[in-house]
Amino acid sequence: MDFEKAWEVIKSNLIPRIRAKRSLALFATVRAKFEGWLKVEVADILCAYGKVIPEKDLIDIVFENSAIELKTVNTSYKYLGVLNKTKPVTDNVKSVIDDIYKLKKSSYENKYVLFIVFPLDDNKYWQKHLNKISQNLEEFKESEIVFFNGIKGKLYFGKIS
After folding, report:
1. What pLDDT does residue 143 have?
2. Taking a C-beta distance cutoff of 8 angstroms, is the pair 157, 4 a contact?
3. Pairing with 128, which of 7, 51, 91, 92 sits 20 to 30 Å away (CA)?
């Protein structure tokens, strides 16, 4: 599946699922990661379009000749109604970049990284981190997400060359 189609399929199906899950909003409130849930949902979405294999070759999801790494990036930025935590976001950014480099070495035709950043409003500090990630991507897309309880974040999808 090419980049544009994969983005549209995942975005149009995943964003409503994020909004609908009350339990997922609880995770956002305490800045807890939910990568396992994300993996199951993305696999479920892609199953309608072909064969999906989770955890093949140490890659989160393999779909046809595409490899997708997934991450949930919990920020430490102040956000009303969200538990304050001080773990720096730089560790999460490094993890996304590490996944990009891992996929660059793989032999799959299409290589993508999908990550959710939360909580996140317009934040000038996040833009610096996003620039570090995006410079390792051929192209990328983003869309706002809103959890059931109104906490905002971003969904990002990047193509790796």
Report:
1. 98
2. no
3. 7
**Per-residue pLDDT at 98 exceeds 90:** yes
Amino acid identity, position 57: D
The predicted structure's pLDDT at residue 58: 96
Contact criterion met (CB below 8 Å) for 159 and 112: yes
Whether the predicted pLDDT of 56 surpasses 90: yes
pTM of the predicted model as reported, rounded to 2 decimal places? 0.96
Residues 6+ apart with CB under 8 A from 128: none
Tokens linked to 94: 């490094």
Q: Find, among 117, 22, 128, the residue nearest to 72 by Cα.
A: 117
Q: Is the pLDDT assigned to residue 86 strictly greater than 90?
A: no
DSSP result, 49-101:
TS-EEEEETTEEEEETTEEEEEEEEE--S--TTS------HHHHHHHHHHHHH
For the four alpha carbons of 13, 68, 142 and 82, in that order, the dihedral sign comes to positive
Tell me the average pLDDT of the chain: 96
Structure tokens that stand for 111 in this block:
């290589």
108 DSSP 8-state letter = -
What secondary structure does DSSP assign to 129-153, as a single string?
Answer: HHHHHHTTSSEEEEEEEE-TTS-EE
